[in-house]
C-alpha cells in the first residue's frame, strides 16, 4: 500500500511539472492530429469525423484486412480502439481487459486485467459491454464494470490510481467510456433497471479525487441546479427552472430510486466550458407506479465542467412510459442553417424517435422531428411547450397496468440506442445508424429491493410493420430542417457507431458482421463490404501510421441488440408470428471479440 | 405407535397426490403457481433465461428443471451461482415468499403443461 501511494504521488508530481496545462489542451491537441484517434468519438464535439483522405470513395473498394486481433472474450464488444502515436489501445467487455498494441509490429506491449467480483455480471442490464478507454497526458483511463475508475500509465500499463464510482450491491455498474474534459475524468453510472439514482461525477485526472458530483434527480443542491439560474425551455422561451424542479415531479421519495442514469457519449464545448450528456429512463418501467414528470430523467444536460453547475436542461420525454432513455450522444456542430440562420447547435437522436436540434449556448429548442417515419407514440413535439404530443392508444400509462399496449413504435431500444452517429462538416449532415423496430409493452406492479431488477414491464419487439421488413436503416439527416435526406434499409438494427471521412466515405458495421462503406454524398452506393468474424456493435475508428490510413472496428455480437432484442423476437407476436430474428442472426454470426484493421493494399 | 402411523401415512399419501400445480388450457393456473409466474416476471428472469425459459445468456430452464431436485433449485435461487452470473435472491422478499410457486411454475413450463407468457388464475 505504501509503495502504491509513493508511486501515485511521484506520478502526480511528474505530471504537474511536465505540463502545467489543462489535460484537455493535450487531448484537444491529440484529436486535432487527424493521424490519431485520441477520443472514443474522435473529438470533443462527438463528431466521429476524420480529416484523413487517403481512403476515398473511388478506392475504398480496394480495402484489405491489414491485421486482426482477438480479445479472447465472448459477449458484446462496444466502443473502439484509441490510437495515440505508435500505440493502439483496445478494451474488452467484462472482465475489462486492456491491451496496448504497438502499431509497428502489432505486438502486445502491455496488458491489464482488473480483478472484479463476478457478481457484478447479473446486475448489468443489457450484456457486459464496455464502451472503451480514454487517454490524456500519458494516461489511459478505464471505467470498469464494477464502477472502479482506474488510471494506467500509457507506456507501461501500471496502475496510477483507482477510485470507486458506485456500489454494484445497489445495482450500480458502469458501461460508459470515461470522458476527459479539462483536468477531469467525467464518468456516469448505469443501473436504470435496478432503481439506481443517476449522476455524473468528475475526478481529478492526476489524483482520482472526486471534484464534483451532480445527480439527475432530487434536491436542487444535489443536482447542482441553481433554481434561479438553471434554465429550461418554458412557453416558447428559456426561463429559470425554479425551486425543487425535480422533487415536485415525483411522488414521495421515489426520486431516490428514480433512475436517470448516464451511460452515453458526452461532448464538450471548450469556448462555453460546458459539457453535454443525456439522462436515462425513470425507474421502474411501469409508469403507473411513478406519477409526475419524473424530472430530470430523459433530459439533455449542459453543465459547467469546473463546478458541475447546470446551465440548462431540456426534458424530452416527461413521465416516460416506454423506456425511451435520453442517454444517446450529444453531437456539437457549428454554423448549421436553421430557418435561414447559422447556429451553433447540439444535435441529439433520441431513443424516442425524435431528433432534437438545440442552441447549445442557451438551450433553446430549435428543431424536433421524427428521424424514422415509423415513430407513432407521439404525433409531434409541441414547439412552444417542448412536450411530445402522446397518442392515447400507445400510452401505456393510459392503458394501465397488466394491459398490453400493442404496436408502439419505436421499441424500447429506440429509433436509435447508444450506437453513435457521425457528423460531416463538409456537407453539414449527420450519418445515423438506426433501429426500425416496434413493440408491445405491458407494465406491471413491481417492488423495489436494493440490487434486484426493478423493471416492471414485459416487452415483445419486432420489425416495424408495413415497411421493408428489416430492423434497421442507415440514414442521412439534415438537423437544420429536421428531415431525412436519404435512408438505406438494413436487415438488422444498425448497432455500430458510424464514421465519416474527408475522403468522402461513410462506414458502419452490421449485426451480421459486415463492415460497409458508402459514398458520403449518396449512401445508396455501397462501395465496400467485408464480413468480420462476428456481429458488429462496436464503432468504426480511423488513423494513419507511416503514411497509410487504417480503419479499425471491434466485432463481437451481444449487447441489447444481439441478445435482448433478438431473444424477444423468438416470442410469437400477434399478426407477425415468429419473426425468427434471433435464429436468423444465428445463421450469420456467433460470439467472439476481434479487432479487424483495414487498409488499402 | 400403530395409531400414530395410521395418522401419518395417509397424510404423506395425500401430499404425494397433491399435484405440484394445477393448470387448465395451458394458461389458467392455481394461485401459488400464478404468484410463481409473477415472481419470475418481477425479477426479470427472462433477461438471462429467455422469455420462454428456453435459455439465453443463462441456461434453458426447460432443461434444468428436468434435472434439478427441488432442494437444488431452492439452493440455486437462494445462494446463486455467482461464478456463472446467477445472482442470489435470498434478499428478495418476493422470491423467498413464492419459492414453491416459482418452482411449480417452472416445472409446469418444463413439463410443457403451462404455456409461455401471460397467465390467469384458475377459479
Features:
heterodimer; A: 601 residues; mainly beta; six-stranded mixed beta sheet; five-stranded mixed beta sheet; 40 strands; B: 123 residues; mainly alpha; 7 helices; 54% helix; globular
**Proportion of strand residues of chain A:** 35-45%
Helicity level of chain A, as a percent range? under 10%
Distance between the termini of chain B: 41 Å
Helical/strand content category of chain B: mainly alpha
Shape of chain B: globular
Biggest β-sheet strands, sense, barrel of chain A: 6 strands, mixed
Estimate the helix proportion of chain B, in percent: 40-55%
Low-confidence stretches of chain B: 1-14
Q: Which strand order does the major sheet of chain B show?
A: 1-2-3
The biggest beta sheet of chain B reads: 3 strands, mixed
Total number of helical segments of chain B? Answer: 7
**Count the helices of chain A. How many?**
6
Shape of chain A: globular
Most extensive interface between two protein chains, with residue counts: A-B, 30 and 28 residues
H/E element order of chain B: HEEHHHHHHE
Q: How would you classify the helix and strand content of chain A by structural class?
A: mainly beta
Q: Numbering strands along the chain, what is their spatial order in the largest sheet of chain A?
A: 16-15-20-19-18-17
Q: Which stretches of chain A are low in confidence, meaning pLDDT under 50 for 5 or more residues running?
A: 1-20, 564-580
Overview of the molecule:
The complex is a heterodimer of chains A (about 600) and B (about 120). Chain A is built from six helices and 40 strands. Chain A has about 600 residues and is mainly beta. In chain A, strands 16-15-20-19-18-17 form a six-stranded mixed beta sheet, with no helix packed on it. Chain A has a five-stranded mixed beta sheet with strand order 1-34-35-36-37, with no helix packed on it. Chain A has a four-stranded antiparallel beta sheet with strand order 2-40-39-38, with no helix packed on it. In chain A, a hairpin with a 4-residue loop joins strand 35 (about 505-510) and strand 36 (about 515-520). Chain B has about 120 residues and is mainly alpha-helical. In chain B, strand 1 (about 25) and strand 2 form a beta hairpin. In chain B, helix 2 (about 30-40) crosses helix 7 (about 100-110) and helix 4 (about 60-65) packs across helix 7. Chain B is globular. The interface between A and B is medium-sized, with 30 and 28 residues.
Amino acid at each position: 500500500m505504501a509503495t502504491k501511494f509513493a508511486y501515485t504521488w511521484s506520478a502526480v508530481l511528474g505530471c504537474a511539472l511536465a505540463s502545467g496545462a489543462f489535460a484537455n489542451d493535450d487531448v484537444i491537441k491529440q484529436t486535432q492530429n487527424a493521424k490519431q484517434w485520441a477520443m472514443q468519438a474522435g473529438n470533443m464535439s462527438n463528431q466521429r469525423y476524420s480529416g484523413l483522405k487517403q481512403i476515398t470513395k473511388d478506392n475504398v473498394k480496394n480495402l484489405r484486412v491489414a491485421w486482426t486481433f482477438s480479445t479472447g472474450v465472448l459477449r458484446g464488444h462496444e466502443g473502439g480502439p484509441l490510437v495515440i502515436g505508435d500505440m493502439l489501445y483496445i478494451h474488452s467487455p467484462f472482465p475489462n481487459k486492456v491491451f496496448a498494441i504497438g502499431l509497428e509490429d502489432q505486438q502486445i506491449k502491455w496488458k491489464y486485467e482488473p480483478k472484479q467480483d463476478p457478481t457484478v455480471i447479473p446486475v448489468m442490464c443489457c450484456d457486459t459491454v464496455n464502451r472503451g478507454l480514454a487517454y490524456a497526458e500519458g494516461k489511459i483511463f478505464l471505467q470498469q464494470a464494477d464502477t472502479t475508475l482506474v488510471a494506467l500509465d500509457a507506456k507501461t500499463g501500471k496502475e496510477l490510481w483507482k477510485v470507486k464510482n458506485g456500489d454494484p450491491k445497489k445495482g450500480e455498474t458502469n458501461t460508459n467510456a470515461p470522458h476527459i474534459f479539462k483536468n477531469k475524468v467525467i464518468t456516469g453510472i448505469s443501473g436504470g433497471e435496478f432503481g439506481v439514482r443517476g449522476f455524473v461525477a468528475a475526478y481529478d485526472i492526476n489524483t482520482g479525487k472526486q471534484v464534483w458530483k451532480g445527480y439527475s434527480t432530487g434536491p436542487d443542491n444535489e443536482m447542482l441546479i441553481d433554481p434561479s439560474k438553471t434554465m429550461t425551455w418554458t412557453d416558447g422561451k428559456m426561463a429559470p427552472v425554479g425551486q425543487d424542479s425535480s422533487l415536485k415531479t415525483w411522488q414521495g421519495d421515489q426520486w431516490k430510486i428514480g433512475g436517470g442514469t448516464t451511460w452515453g457519449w458526452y461532448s464538450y464545448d471548450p469556448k462555453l466550458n460546458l459539457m453535454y450528456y443525456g439522462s436515462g429512463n425513470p425507474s421502474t418501467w411501469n409508469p403507473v407506479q411513478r406519477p409526475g414528470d419524473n424530472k430530470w430523467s430523459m433530459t439533455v444536460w449542459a453543465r459547467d465542467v469546473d463546478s458541475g453547475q447546470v446551465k440548462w436542461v431540456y426534458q424530452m420525454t416527461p413521465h416516460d412510459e416506454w423506456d425511451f432513455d435520453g442517454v444517446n450522444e450529444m453531437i456539437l456542430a457549428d454554423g448549421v442553417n436553421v430557418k435561414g440562420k447559422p447556429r451553433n447547435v447540439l444535435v441529439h437522436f433520441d431513443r424516442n424517435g425524435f431528433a432534437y436540434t438545440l442552441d447549445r449556448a442557451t438551450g433553446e429548442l430549435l428543431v424536433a422531428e421524427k428521424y424514422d417515419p415509423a415513430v407513432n407514440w407521439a404525433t409531434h413535439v409541441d414547439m412552444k411547450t417542448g412536450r411530445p404530443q402522446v397518442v392515447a392508444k400507445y400510452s401505456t400509462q393510459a392503458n394501465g397496468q397488466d394491459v398490453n399496449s400493442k404496436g408502439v413504435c419505436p421499441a424500447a431500444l429506440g429509433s436509435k440506442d447508444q450506437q453513435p452517429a457521425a457528423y460531416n462538416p463538409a456537407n453539414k449532415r449527420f450519418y445515423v445508424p438506426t433501429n426500425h423496430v416496434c413493440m408491445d409493452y405491458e407494465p406491471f406492479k413491481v417492488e423495489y429491493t436494493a440490487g434486484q431488477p426493478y423493471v416492471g414491464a414485459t416487452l415483445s419487439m419486432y420489425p416495424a410493420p408495413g415497411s421493408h421488413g428489416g430492423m434497421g436503416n442507415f440514414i442521412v439527416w439534415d438537423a437544420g430542417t429536421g428531415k431525412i435526406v436519404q435512408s438505406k434499409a438494413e436487415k438488422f438494427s444498425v448497432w455500430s457507431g458510424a464514421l465519416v471521412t474527408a475522403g468522402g466515405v461513410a462506414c458502419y458495421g452490421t449485426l451480421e458482421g459486415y463492415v460497409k462503406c458508402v459514398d458520403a454524398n449518396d449512401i445508396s452506393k455501397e462501395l465496400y463490404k467485408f464480413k468480420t468474424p462476428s456481429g458488429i456493435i462496436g464503432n468504426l475508428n480511423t488513423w494513419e501510421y507511416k503514411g497509410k490510413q487504417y480503419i479499425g472496428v471491434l466485432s463481437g455480437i451481444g449487447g441489447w441488440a444481439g441478445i435482448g432484442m433478438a431473444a424477444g423476437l423468438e416470442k410469437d407476436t400477434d399478426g407477425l408470428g415468429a419473426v425468427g430474428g434471433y435464429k436468423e442472426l444465428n445463421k450469420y454470426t456467433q460470439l467472439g471479440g476481434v479487432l479487424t484493421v483495414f487498409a488499402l493494399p | 405407535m400403530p395409531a400414530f402411523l395410521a395418522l401419518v401415512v395417509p397424510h404423506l399419501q395425500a401430499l404425494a397426490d397433491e399435484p405440484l400445480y394445477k393448470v387448465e388450457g395451458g394458461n389458467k393456473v392455481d394461485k401459488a403457481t400464478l404468484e410463481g409466474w409473477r415472481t419470475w416476471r418481477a425479477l426479470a428472469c427472462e433477461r438471462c433465461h429467455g422469455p420462454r425459459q428456453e435459455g439465453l445468456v443463462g441456461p434453458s430452464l426447460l432443461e434444468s428443471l428436468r434435472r434439478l431436485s427441488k432442494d437444488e433449485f431452492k439452493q440455486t435461487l437462494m445462494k446463486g451461482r455467482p461464478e456463472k452470473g446467477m445472482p442470489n435472491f435470498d434478499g428478495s422478499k418476493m422470491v423467498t415468499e413464492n419459492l414453491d410457486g416459482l418452482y411449480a411454475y417452472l416445472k409446469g413450463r418444463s413439463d410443457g403443461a403451462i404455456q409461455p407468457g401471460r397467465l390467469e388464475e384458475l377459479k
